[in-house]
């Protein structure tokens, strides 16, 4: 293919499949020897990672970077919004926290941020044969079009062709695809090169007449119909989008006589919930998200994950009765593991001088660890290495909280707490270390009385992730018109695409 091109993958809705399709296209191109990079101008997510260049980006872009054979970089996601409440988000620009905004106040920053994202994309396109961009939400949000920098605003500024993916599992996908084009003004419509249907189950012959009518109505073809696959669940952009009935992943049967049951508390502002995915990859480990106390009663292990709003989520734990249930679990010497914000909640006290709570706060923690935390206005980012349970480990840190006093033994070299049944660490990604995870699972099973549980000797989290990326590429290769896709990437949208003369489109002329 022409070694110069770009593409924007937009979606009819959030969680339509944009992140997965971008990863699949990237992996497919990479396997063909094409130098390719991912890009998301603006992401809104509390699932993030620390990059090798020391910044913070959305986890989906880190996953897409792995699909390209690249280390994550701040260039792949120059603007990240991290919601701390329904109205306020922290803004991360080029990997670094840069204030807080409301939905309205953010509009005053978008002109400057559009320059940031277009400059970053231009630089990426100079280094790679192809850049595959991911939109945010839906381009049909016409109330936001004037300040858009992730969908059609980016497409116009960077001269990008666009394909729109729709999730048929939600229902109404043909109307969603048609309506997405119809509400756009003519200049934006001209950039929509085609459609992709995602998560299809059933007989393709039944869908074919609808796709033909969609082509007749819009002048645009459907480039492919991607079937549903229950094997895809790692690194979901929405950390809970792959969860069915609260269960994470597709647990394989145990190697021993017993299952190990893990309850991950689904905090209102949960962040980096993907930490639990490494546990869910293990045979015989059943991982479930929980939001009420009764679900903890039959759990062997409780995990308190990260939070973007630690103080308010701690108050939610108390209001729901989950705090008492976790304390009772620990009193029975059953294991509790806290990660980042969850680790901070397990301590005796959290002092916030105005980082999360504008007026400041000094609150009691759950008191399960001899630990005191003070928030710092400057966010700590790092990619540390060390030793835990006698084996080498690595991870990443994203937190405002600092340990100001700790009376428990350390879980890691210079970090974390190990009080026997209650453990904690600021490190994300710690459970992705295979040797450490096996040792930890053996210990957790013993502490919870699951003596019939046996950890698998050979589970590789990295291999599981690679397998899913290859599956995404297989789906692209087998179910998309890749020749048409190549043409769009290299040459843009066809120049003779019709304008849908709907009332909405006409009103915006």
UniProtKB/TrEMBL annotation:
Pathway membership, UniProt: Cofactor biosynthesis; adenosylcobalamin biosynthesis
Keywords in alphabetical order: Cobalamin biosynthesis, Glutamine amidotransferase
Pfam family, one: CbiA
CobB/CobQ-like glutamine amidotransferase domain location: 261-435
Entries under CDD domains matching the protein: CobQ_N, GATase1_CobQ
InterPro entries per the UniProt record, alphabetical: Class_I_gatase-like, CobQ/CobB/MinD/ParA_Nub-bd_dom, CobQ_GATase1, CobQ_N, CobQ_synth, GATase_3, P-loop_NTPase
Active site per UniProt: 340 (nucleophile), 428
Organism superkingdom: Bacteria
All copies of domain CobQ/CobB/MinD/ParA nucleotide binding, residue ranges: 8-233
Family, per entry: Belongs to the CobB/CobQ family. CobQ subfamily.
NCBIfam families xref list: cobQ (TIGR00313), PRK00784.1 (NF001989)
Function recorded in the entry: Catalyzes amidations at positions B, D, E, and G on adenosylcobyrinic A,C-diamide. NH(2) groups are provided by glutamine, and one molecule of ATP is hydrogenolyzed for each amidation.
Protein name (Swiss-Prot/TrEMBL): Cobyric acid synthase
Annotated gene: cobQ
């Amino acid at each position: 293919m022409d070694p110069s091109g770009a593409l924007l993958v937009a979606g009819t809705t959030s969680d339509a499949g944009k992140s997965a399709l971008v990863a699949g296209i990237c992996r497919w191109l990479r396997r063909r020897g094409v130098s390719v990079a991912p890009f998301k101008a603006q992401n809104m997510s509390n699932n993030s990672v620390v990059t090798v260049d020391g910044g913070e980006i959305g986890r989906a872009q880190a996953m897409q970077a792995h699909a390209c054979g690249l280390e994550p970089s701040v260039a792949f996601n120059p603007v990240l919004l991290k919601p701390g409440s329904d109205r306020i988000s922290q803004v991360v620009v080029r990997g670094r926290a840069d204030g807080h905004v409301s939905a309205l106040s953010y509009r005053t920053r978008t002109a400057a941020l559009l320059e940031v994202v277009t400059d970053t994309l231009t630089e990426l396109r100079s280094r790679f044969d192809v850049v595959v961009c991911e939109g945010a939400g839906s381009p049909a949000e016409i109330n936001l079009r004037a300040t858009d920098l992730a969908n059609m605003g980016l497409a116009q500024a960077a001269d990008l062709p666009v394909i729109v993916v729709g999730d048929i599992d939600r229902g109404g996908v043909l109307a969603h695809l048609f309506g997405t084009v119809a509400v756009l003004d003519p200049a934006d419509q001209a950039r929509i090169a085609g459609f992709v249907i995602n998560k299809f189950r059933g007989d393709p012959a039944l869908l074919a007449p609808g796709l033909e009518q969609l082509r007749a109505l819009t002048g645009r073809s459907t480039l492919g119909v991607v079937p549903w696959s229950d094997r895809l669940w790692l690194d979901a952009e929405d950390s809970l989008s792959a969860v069915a009935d609260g269960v994470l992943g597709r647990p394989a049967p145990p190697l021993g006589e017993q299952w190990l049951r893990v309850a991950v508390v689904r905090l209102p502002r949960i962040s980096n919930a993907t930490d639990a995915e490494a546990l869910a990859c293990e045979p015989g480990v059943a991982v479930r998200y929980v939001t009420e106390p009764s679900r903890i009663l039959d759990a062997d292990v409780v995990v308190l994950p990260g939070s973007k709003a630690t103080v308010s989520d701690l108050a939610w734990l108390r209001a729901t009765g989950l705090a008492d249930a976790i304390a009772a679990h620990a009193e029975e010497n059953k294991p509790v593991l806290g990660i980042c914000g969850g680790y901070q909640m397990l301590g005796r006290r959290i002092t916030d001088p105005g980082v999360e709570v504008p007026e400041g706060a000094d609150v009691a923690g759950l008191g399960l660890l001899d630990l005191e935390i003070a928030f710092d206005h400057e966010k700590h980012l790092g990619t540390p290495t060390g030793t835990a349970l006698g084996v080498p480990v690595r991870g990443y840190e994203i937190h405002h909280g600092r340990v100001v006093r700790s009376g428990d033994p350390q879980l890691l070299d210079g970090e974390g707490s190990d009080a026997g049944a209650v453990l904690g660490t600021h490190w994300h990604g710690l459970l992705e270390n295979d040797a450490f995870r096996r040792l930890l699972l053996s210990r957790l099973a013993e502490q919870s009385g699951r003596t019939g549980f046996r950890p698998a000797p050979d589970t590789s989290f990295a291999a599981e992730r690679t397998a899913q990326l290859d599956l995404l590429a297989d789906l692209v290769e087998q179910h998309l018109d890749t020749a048409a896709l190549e043409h769009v990437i290299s040459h843009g949208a066809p120049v003779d695409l019709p304008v849908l003369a709907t009332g909405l489109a006409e009103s915006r002329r």
